[in-house]
Amino acid sequence: MTLRVLLGGVVLAAVSVAYVCGAQAADLPVRPAPAPMAPVTYEPPVYNWSGFYVGGNIGGGFGNSSWTDAFTGANDNFSKDGFIGGGQIGANMQFNWLVVGVEGDFDWTGLKGSGTDSFGNAISTKTEWTSTATGRVGAAFDRLLVYGKGGVAFAQDQSSLNGIGGGAASTTLTRTGWTAGAGLEYAFDKNWTAKIEYDYLGFGSEALNLPTPAFPAYSSSASLNVQEVKAGINFKFGGP
User: Fold this and answer.
1) 0.85 cut: is pTM over it?
2) CA dist., res. 111 & res. 26, Å (int)
3) Mean predicted confidence (pLDDT) in 37-64
4) Tens digits of per-residue pLDDT, 78-127?
5) How far is it, in rounded angstroms, from Cα 176 to Cα 234?
6) DSSP E strands: which ranges in 117-210?
7) What percent of the chain has pLDDT over 90?
8) Who has greater pLDDT, 44 or 77?
9) Which residues pair with 170 in a beta bridge?
């Protein structure tokens, strides 16, 4: 009987302690849940166009050569077209969104045209190469560059005459003129960019002396303009 009473007292004391602890725990303030963390996102760095670059290009050219007829003084116009290909070298500096730079290029061309003058002599013209030295100004939209360019242009032009009375003559001119153009360039890698570009090259009139046995004093003049559409790829030194 005494053992039962003792056990009962122990159980009653344990229940009392548990009740008191539970009541005290219920009175404690509730700790707020931690604020949710924002997801971590990766933003690639804005591309920097500053630096030196070299590259190559390929495309098509369209030329027009206007000759002064040696007998009538009228203009004989000859259109010519063909493939072009070559390379370029340049440098850019970027100021916020503004990109300024310089560029030089050289392209071999296959532009050929032919016709006859008023007397029936066969005349032909071939532009063998073109070259430009230009300044560039553009607006950068991260990896996309929209630009315009302008400067001095050079070309080597060969003119030939095959006389109806026999004999032939030719002369080669290195012309100097002007150029203006525009293009789009996209950086598909930190060091590699691709572009598409249009350029107009204008040259003044040059005197032509093409003596043959039948026409020993054959003299004319010819002007030249060339339009070029080309795609290119550049390697830029340094990182983005």
Assistant:
1) no
2) 94
3) 83
4) 888 899 999 999 999 999 999 999 999 999 998 988 888 888 888 888 99
5) 26
6) 122-141, 144-162, 168-187, 192-209
7) 50
8) 77
9) 160
Helix (H) or strand (E) holding 24: helix 2-27
Q: Which residues pair with 168 in a beta bridge?
A: 162
10 Å CB burial of residue 115 (0-12, 13-18, 19+) is middle
Q: Which residue has the tokens 């070309």?
A: 155
Higher pLDDT, 17 or 119: 119
Helix or strand run (H / E) with residue 105: strand 98-116
Q: Is 141 within 8 Å of 134 (Cβ atoms)?
A: no
Residue 34: per-residue pLDDT? 61
Which residue has 């990896």 as its token pair? 143
Cβ partners under 8 Å of residue 238, min gap 6: 50, 51, 52, 191
What is the CATH code of the structural domain delimited by 51-236? 2.40.160.20
pLDDT at 18 over 50: no
- By the 10 Å C-beta count (0-12 exposed, 13-18 middle, 19+ buried), 40 is classed as exposed
- How many angstroms separate the CA atoms of 142 and 139, rounded? 9
Structure tokens, 49 = 């166009």
Among left, alpha and beta (phi > 0; psi -120 to 50; other), residue 82 is left
> Would you mind telling me the total number of residues written for the chain in this entry?
240
CA distance linking residue 14 with residue 216, whole number of Å: 134
Domain ranges, ordered by start, for the chain: 51-236
